[in-house]
Amino acid sequence: MAESILEHLKSEPSWAFFLITFAFFSLLTLFLSFLRWVYVTFLRPGKNLKKYGSWALITGPTDGIGKAFAFQLADKGLNLVLVGRNPDKLNEVLEAIKSKSRSIQIETVVMDFAGDLNDGVSRIKEVIQGLDIGVLINNAGISYPYARFLHEVDDKLLNDLIKVNVEGITKVTQAVLPGMVARKRGAIVNIGSGSATVIPSDPLYSVYSATKAYIDQFSRCLYVEYKKSGIDVQCQAPLYVATKMVRFRRSSFFVPSPDGYARAGLRWIGYEPRCTPYWTHSILWALVHSLPEWIVDWWRLKSCLKTRKTELSKI
Fold first, then answer.
1. Where are the transmembrane segments (predicted)?
2. What are phi and psi of 146, to 5 degrees?
């Protein structure tokens, strides 16, 4: 049977043989890519995060993804350093985690990422001195209150976006890295955004998207810089997650809850330098990349203008 098929192919014109061969290898590549996606998404085991160190530091842990990561890391047996601007909310999260994981040690650092960064980073350095910080989750970030054209972005919002999303993540990472380098182990997770890595543009959120593009490139460079030092650096680029930062407050098939996202996110730590951990987000990523950019740009602009109209009607 196989010999007759081979003989038949040989009798075809060379261009037809080339096309058939090309189609076969294309299908084979697609099939292998699908098998890899199934493995890394559903079957690949997460790493033992305690091997990186006994402590994890999380910024923005009082709500949304950061809060979910804090609870998930505590469940894994890691002690926590929680860094946020609201002392009351920090204590609420601390008490809630303690009620479920009594053996966990928790330190808190009050830091306003839109305020005096140098003072806040100094307090972080004081608290983590002598602690075995193995995992850093850079989650603190802000977005627009609603979709705006660039000329409508006021100076305060513009400065806060850059200060919190760019300068803050850079300085916190710089503060934690020396200990990881000395111990020759560690994992750094920077929460980016699909607006910078999945879709080709994010109109009416241009500065926010640009700050997240910085996080993506920053993470990739650190991944290369520190890989030989035993430090895994990763940018996680989620699409919509049901948090206060987005208009979708309820979870759905394509919009996971913070808990659902954090569970998926933990399983990817220590692997690829860039990822979209939640499985339905990765399907959307593949779909977006299969379309011409102009179609995605058109759809995104239309969606943002609709959101803007809705939000402005509430003001």
1. 15-39
2. -160, 165
241-291 tens-digit pLDDT: 998 877 667 889 999 999 999 999 999 999 999 999 999 999 999 999 999
DSSP H helical ranges for 147-274: 155-162, 169-183, 194-197, 206-226, 258-268
169: tokens are: 């993540």
Q: Indicate the residue type of 262.
A: A
**Tokens representing residue 254 in the block:** 């394509």
Q: Look at strands 106-110 and 133-138 and give their pairing.
A: unpaired
Residue of 302, 286, 271 lying closest to 40 (CA atoms): 271
Each residue's pLDDT tens digit, 140-160: 999 999 999 999 999 999 999
What is the distance between the alpha carbons of residues 161 and 142, in angstroms, rounded to a whole number?
6
Active site residues: 208
Q: What residue segments make up the domains of the chain, in order of their start? A: 46-314
Q: Each residue of 146-160: b (16+ CB within 10 Å) or e?
A: bbbeeeebeeebeeb
